[in-house]
């Protein structure tokens, strides 16, 4: 396994240069390994590709691009804490080709393709047992998932096929339209062969995950290809297939999807593509509690909080505070804070008011400055609930709900509304609102912006769709708290200078 991970990292660096000696050496070492020639090791060969999905939730990379470019998240500079121009530029949409967060997102996404290609190269060489075929199809999806985010965020990118191991030859460059058609074809080809939920263990790629990604590609088709309109009939058809399959159901308690022991409940309800975290097994990285809470809000074994991320007043204004998704108090007696949106004076578990490090009352406010905030400015979000009795350090065991079943209802409803079927759209959005315990809409109230808001209520900080939604609903370039309106050329991120230095066939996106 160590050699496989090393090869992925090395091949990532070699992919866009003419240097091939070291890559060839590592690949030859792998070819002679008993691991890669054994059909019983299909899971091991697919593991690096699976691990790349976790990189999509990397707090300083793809996740930050997905969330911080929207009104859902910001990392204000607080004195000398979080004093990072790269953060500020991502929030302001003033990023350039030297931005380290943009560069890391680009690298992580391309690494996901490289890891997938390496896995496919080995899997394709094995005896084609049922197990090998299953993992091959799953890895094809993983590769396509990374292609989707590259297409969505950067527009064009270099692409090698799994069999193209001659690194002296430069890879092809897929433009946005060509990449879109390629993604559609790959997903369409693999969907019939992927297993349904229940046919593979929780955490494995299923048919519904590919159908969900394809539905998003069809919804974004007009944006990606410049044809303006999405393929709404195809979106509706895919959503119908999953909803009518009976394999999933909407959670009657949305917060159970985000508790520390969420795997069983999520598997029984909405988890379409979960990302598994297990501190005991050494699968760490779920730090969404640490990144937002103030230093002085520690409790039990949770001894290190970073006082970083907050949300904006624009996001908060969309909410009805009576919405159960707004906040939940089930762990407040054990932690001192509620789940969801955390605003105002903060208290410890005994009910004593907390103070910041200067001795001022710890009152989270909606007002903040991106360039210079104090410790308490910015309303915080706790998406993933801690286990108060946890004994494995400050990390969390919550599986990330990357793709969820409720997305199918909201995608289908949006597609119906865009086609003029208000009654059908109303039924879908109200299916979600009813089970969440909030007032249902009337036909007269229903607009596309209601769908945009509902999607943010359902999926904030999940790391999958926030930026995509802001672009599709036309809100990405609008002025918002601490952000001026931007030109639409900022929708596509800049191609990092390091990438263009390595491959002179990569063109910079307009506006940079």
Automatic annotation (TrEMBL):
Keywords (A to Z) from UniProt: Cell outer membrane, Membrane, Signal
Stored PROSITE patterns: PROKAR_LIPOPROTEIN (PS51257)
GO cellular component labels: cell outer membrane
SUPFAM superfamilies listed in its UniProt record: TPR-like
Subcellular location as annotated: Cell outer membrane
Signal sequence, renumbered to the chain: 1-23
Presence of keyword Membrane: yes
All copies of domain RagB/SusD, residue ranges: 254-475
Keyword Endoplasmic reticulum: no
Stretches assigned to coiled coil: none
Family assignment from sequence similarity: Belongs to the SusD family.
Protein name as annotated: RagB/SusD domain-containing protein
Organism of this sequence: Hallella multisaccharivorax DSM 17128
């Amino acid at each position: 396994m160590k050699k496989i991970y090393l090869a992925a990292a090395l091949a990532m660096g070699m992919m866009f240069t003419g240097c091939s000696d070291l890559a060839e050496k590592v690949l030859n070492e792998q070819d002679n390994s008993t691991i890669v020639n054994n059909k019983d090791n299909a899971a091991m060969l697919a593991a690096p590709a699976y691990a790349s999905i976790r990189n999509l939730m990397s707090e300083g990379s793809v996740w930050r691009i997905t969330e911080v470019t929207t009104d859902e998240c910001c990392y204000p500079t607080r004195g000398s804490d979080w004093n990072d121009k790269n953060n500020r530029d991502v929030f302001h949409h003033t990023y350039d080709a030297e931005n380290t967060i943009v560069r890391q997102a680009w690298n992580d996404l391309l690494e996901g393709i490289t890891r997938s290609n390496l896995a496919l190269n080995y899997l394709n060489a094995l005896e084609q047992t049922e197990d090998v075929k299953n993992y091959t199809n799953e890895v094809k999806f993983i590769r396509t998932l990374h292609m989707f985010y590259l297409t969505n965020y950067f527009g064009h990118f270099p692409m090698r096929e799994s069999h193209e191991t001659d690194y002296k030859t430069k890879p092809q460059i897929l433009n946005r339209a060509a990449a879109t058609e390629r993604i559609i074809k790959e997903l369409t080809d693999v969907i019939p062969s992927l297993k349904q939920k229940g046919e593979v263990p929780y955490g494995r790629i299923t048919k519904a995950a590919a159908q969900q990604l394809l539905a998003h590609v069809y919804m974004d088709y007009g944006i990606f290809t410049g044809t303006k309109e999405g393929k709404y009939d195809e979106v509706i058809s895919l959503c119908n297939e999953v909803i009518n399959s009976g394999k999933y159901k909407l959670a009657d308690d949305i917060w159970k999807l985000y508790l520390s022991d969420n795997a069983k409940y999520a598997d029984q309800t909405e988890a379409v593509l979960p990302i598994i975290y297990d501190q005991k097994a050494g699968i760490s990285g779920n730090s969404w509690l640490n990144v937002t809470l103030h230093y002085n809000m520690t409790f039990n074994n949770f001894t290190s909080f970073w006082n970083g991320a907050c949300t904006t007043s624009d996001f908060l204004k969309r909410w009805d505070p009576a919405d159960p998704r707004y906040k939940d108090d089930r762990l407040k007696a054990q932690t001192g804070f509620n789940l969801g949106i955390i605003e105002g004076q903060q208290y410890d578990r005994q009910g004593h008011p907390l103070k910041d490090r200067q001795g001022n009352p710890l009152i989270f406010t909606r007002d903040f400055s991106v360039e210079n905030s104090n410790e308490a400015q910015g309303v915080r979000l706790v998406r993933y609930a801690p286990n108060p009795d946890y004994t494995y350090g400050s990390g969390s065991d919550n599986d990330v709900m990357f793709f969820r079943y409720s997305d199918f209802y909201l995608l289908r409803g949006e597609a119906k509304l865009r086609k003029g079927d208000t009654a059908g759209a109303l039924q879908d959005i109200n299916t979600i609102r009813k089970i969440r315990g909030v007032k249902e809409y009337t036909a007269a109230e229903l607009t596309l912006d209601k769908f945009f808001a509902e999607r943010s209520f359902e999926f904030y900080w999940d790391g999958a769709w926030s930026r995509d939604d802001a672009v599709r609903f036309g809100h990405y370039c609008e002025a918002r708290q601490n952000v001026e309106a931007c030109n639409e050329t900022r929708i596509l991120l800049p191609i990092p200078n390091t990438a263009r230095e390595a491959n002179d066939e990569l063109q910079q996106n307009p506006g940079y």
